[in-house]
Amino acid sequence: MRGLKTYLAPYLMISPFYILFIVFGLFPILFSLYLAFHSWDGLGPMEFVGLRNFRNLLTDDPDFWKSVGNTFVIWFFSTIPQLFLALVVAFLLNAAFVRFKDFYRAVYFLPNITSIVAVAIIFGSFFGSQFGLINGLLQVVGLPRIEWINDPFWVKVAVSLMVIWRWTGYNAIIYLAGLQSIPHDLYEAATIDGASRKQQFFSITLPLLKPIILFTVILSTIGGMQLFTEPLILVGNTGGATKGGLTLVLYLYNQAFGNQLFGYASAIAWMLFLIIGIFSFLNWKFVSRGEGI
Fold first, then answer.
1. What integer pLDDT is reported at residue 291 of this predicted model?
2. Which of 55, 75, 97, 219 could form a disulfide with 224 if both were Cys (CB 3.0 to 4.6 A apart)?
3. From residue 114, how far is each of 3, 224, 290 by CA, in Å?
4. Using CA atoms, how far apart are residues 275 and 264, in angstroms rounded to an integer?
5. Which pLDDT tens digit goes with each residue over 92-120?
6. CA–CA separation, 127 vs 135, rounded Å?
7. What are phi and psi of 47, to 5 degrees?
8. Where are the bilayer-spanning segments (predicted)?
9. Is 184 exposed, middle or buried (0-12, 13-18, 19+ CB in 10 A)?
């Protein structure tokens, strides 16, 4: 009892975090797992259905697989160019000849803290099929209009461009921090030994940046698999006329709050969790190969 009184004050100080985590974090996770094995409309009694939600999801729901395909394509279109551009921007910001570096860092990071709803609305005016700014510019130079919203391919490109614009600066700042943590003595020693800039990049910069690159790849994978606001604002909750913008989270939202199939939506959420876990693991193995881990 005396020991409990000794540590009572520290435990009380940290208890708000754990209480909030249990109520708003742990409980919803466990409840969604419980709900995935039931049929529930959100108001009436729950009906235990076992694995029926998962079975229907995998065998009888073409829209689920369409949303999976759309999500992976958008991830591919956005993540690879985004991380490449972020690395280029980080190298430029780290260059000795660049002035006003703090200003450029703020400018590149600004899209990440801008309201995504406002961004999506602005991009919607860019990619409008009839009166969009980009189609207006294309017609000025004599090129045909692009059906950004109604074409299943171009709607993915539009959503991907929004993701690239928003997250390139964020990843560039992370890469810049990684570049600045590399000791300059290594480059000086390599220069004395006659190593070229290319050799220094592949022998010093890239190996030491691998943990940072792995971090950004994993974060981009998790974020890319959970795209919701961008396609929702740009093409609506149906994913557009051809469902080309229907992502996994958008489909989950439709099933839960559109069709009131909360058990089915919970099954989608756990399938999403499984997909993110597997895909993140594959990315980790791909990026970290050759290091013996």
1. 54
2. 75
3. 49, 18, 38
4. 17
5. 888 767 777 778 778 888 888 888 778 87
6. 7
7. -120, 120
8. 12-37, 72-97, 109-133, 153-177, 208-228, 261-284
9. exposed
DSSP β-bridge partners for residue 47: 39
pLDDT the model gives residue 292: 44
Bridge partners for 39 per DSSP = 47
Give the pair of three-digit tokens for residue 30: 């466990």
Phi, psi of 132 (to 5 degrees): -70, 150
**What pLDDT was estimated at residue 289?**
67
The pair of structure tokens assigned to 82 is 């985004």
Q: Beta-carbon neighbour count of residue 38 at 10 Å? A: 19
Tell me the C-alpha distance between 257 and 23, whole Å.
Answer: 22
Count of Cβ atoms closer than 10 Å to residue 60 Cβ:
8
Q: How far apart are CA 267 and CA 201, in angstroms?
A: 45
End-to-end CA distance of the chain: 47
Residue 170 corresponds to which tokens in the numbers above?
């964020």
136: DSSP letter: H
Q: Of 250, 253, 245, which Cα lies nearest the Cα of 150? A: 245
Tokens of 241: 């006329």
Judge contact between 79 and 220, C-beta under 8 A.
yes
Q: What are the C-alpha distances in Å from 218 to residues 107, 203, 214, 225, 283?
A: 24, 23, 6, 11, 7
Strands 38-39 and 47-48, sheet pairing: antiparallel
* Residues 143, 26: Cα–Cα separation, whole Å: 53
Which residues in the chain come in under a pLDDT of 50? Answer: 292-293
Q: How far apart are CA 274 and CA 263, in angstroms?
A: 17
